[in-house]
Amino acid sequence: MHSNWRDCKAWFDEKLPMNTNSNEASKFYDICLSQLAGYYENHQFGGISDSLSKMISADPNFILGHCLKNGIELLGTNFTLTSDPYQKSIKDLISKSEALADELTLREKLHVRAIGHLAKGNLPESVKLWEDILIDHPTDMMAVRMSAGVYFYLGDSIQMRDSITRILPKWNKNIPLFNYLYGYYAFGLTQTKELEKAEKYAKMGIEMNRQDGWACHAIAHVNEYASSADKGIDFLLKTEKDWNSCDFISGHNYWHLCLFYLEKQDYEKIVEILNNNESFLNPKMTIDMINISSLLTRLKLDGFKDDEYLKNKFIDVKEKFNDRNDQHGYIYSDFHMALIYAMIGNEQEKQVYMKSLEDFVNNQNLSDFIRNLNINLGRKIFNALFAYGENNFDKVVDLLYPLRYELKNIGGSNAQRDIFNLILIECCFKSKYEKHNRMGAGLLFERLSQKQNSSLTNRIADKFFIHDINKNF
Fold it and tell me: What is the pLDDT of residue 473?
């Protein structure tokens, strides 16, 4: 793992000069960037939050340092895009960059502009600027990592893959953080269903750094899409000590482990993780909320019998994240919060959530991109989830079925968005309308053709008697 922190001269020698003359700030930039790249907290320096503070304290006028800090916070989605702290921080960054314009390189100015677009929710414009940087500076890890994050929130799997493809030949093992590119590339490959190739590159990353939690995560996706639950469990358990040190992805890797246990209906193992793993027991980050709400809903859909247990777990996660009741941004994160309100929220909480969505889309600081995405998809998705929680299955079908091929635009992985497929199939068959029932059969035929070896999918088929008529696959 990279630990020879780069000073001003080292960054200059790599043709990535920055406006700071502070070696301490330069080294902390490297320390922060390494934690971002590797999804881990370097506790020697107090984790990423303290590292960012120390970097800015070392040089308050360090422009790329401010860009990195803002970028990490914006991608973390722990607050709404329109929150006062975000907006003030962005204004300060732009003001500083304008005052220091004469000493900034074009690369630094492009980073500032990209962060400005990201803060307004204009993901396409922000990633265009980071891609522009990578044309001339392919080893700029901040641009690499920010691009990967934005493509994830855009649900753009092809660009997620191709962005790394374009720069990978320009790197070599002597450049710090090179090993992480293999995991990024592998994940993009999983999302375009190139599973054999994805596994190859993920393993290359792990060979260079066993503690590459994101590369391990990519292999979890390989096994998820191949319906290889036993292989997935075996891999994650054998490598657990390695990826468990990656604080920002370890909880999500346990979520993947739970999905494999769910395939096998091993509820006991899932409950053990829910009750004992820190990220599920004491969730703090947005990704923790996402993991818990999704997993609990999947348990419900699969017929987990302990309704009281699910109810209490939903109540617990709602109480921990209830301050997000009026916060909005990327639908990928927000729909998981809506899912919690759908399962356990009262009518007032749902109304507040939807009212705050209207306030959000009317905010003049937002870009048309994020506003239109929430208007055209967010409203319908949240209302569909609330209808599901109320057992209004007909309404769920009417809202979700027409959106099936647009859902990728809300971001996240194929595995995470699969919750919509599971909910929609369930609601189609439980709807009182025969046409909806037939639509459900068609959706299940689609799923069976892609996941013939999936025990979970076959359980759904047995539940709704689809195996009786599905003779051609």
Answer: 46
